[in-house]
Amino acid sequence: MTLADILASLFGDAHDVTLAGDSLAGRGTLPDGGAVHVLGFANRAELGVDQAIGLAARVLDIAKTADRAPILFLIDSSSQRMSRRDELLGLNEYLAHLAKALAFAEQAGHRSVGLLYGGSAAGAFIATALACSALVAVPGADPAVMDLPSMARVTKLPIEVLQQKARTTPVFAPGLQNLVLVGAVAEVWDPAQPLSGQLTALLARPADGDRRGALGKARGGRAKASDIADTVVASATAHG
Question: What is the rounded distance in angstroms from the CA atom of residue 207 to the CA atom of residue 170?
Fold first, then answer.
């Protein structure tokens, strides 16, 4: 789906979302009258310090409002911008600030939903899509925490070994279906149905914390993560 398709399926003409460069922002109104703050990027944008601090400022402005309207983060990016300038300015800190801004908005009553409609990878994926309290996607989305050539450089394993592991172990593999299996993507929405109804249904369910580990266990993509996390929490709270 294109950005125009998604906005039309969500809001019809009841939105003022605009695209400036590769960043988008605005508000939309769902058919039931619910307001939604919309942020994000398009055109496989690279997420650099300027984009990250601009988006974080918008999120913090939303957090100050009393409307408690949710934030819908539309995502079509490549990766973080790995330029010399961005790295020297401390890009990792800017990305962390953006992720913490989304968490702060959540605490202030603004649920955050990431909608992945294009690509995303690495730091850009972690600081936006995975920083939202729920992440959904439409068919054709192409996420990756790390692509296999980059993983080969980091792990020093031959790419053929990683390709073999990716065929049987979702945590090694990029792609939408693998991210669904490990629980990172909660739902894949049906583009043949209005996205407005699917967003409304998601928002109607109570926010029940981070369910990615439990989803990964139920779907067979991460058999141990949920149990290990529960053990750590139980151990920590038993001596609190």
Answer: 26
Q: Which residue has the higher pLDDT, 71 or 171?
A: 71
Which pTM value belongs to this model? 0.88
Separation of alpha carbons 90 and 69, rounded Å: 31
Q: Could you tell me the residue range of the domain that residue 125 belongs to? A: 3-138+189-208
Per residue in 109-134, pLDDT (tens digit) is 999 999 999 888 788 888 999 999 99
Alpha-helical runs (H) found in 14-90 = 49-64, 84-88
pLDDT of residue 145: 76
pLDDT in the model for residue 222: 85
37 sits in which H/E element: strand 35-41
> Of 118, 110, 139, 108, nearest to 74 (Cα)?
118
Token pair listed for 158: 């031959």
What CATH number is given to the structural domain containing 202?
3.90.226.10
* 117-156 burial code (b ≥16 CB/10 A, e <16): bbbbbbbbbbbbbbbbbbbbbbeebbbbbbebeebbeeee
DSSP 209: S
Total domain count, the chain: 1
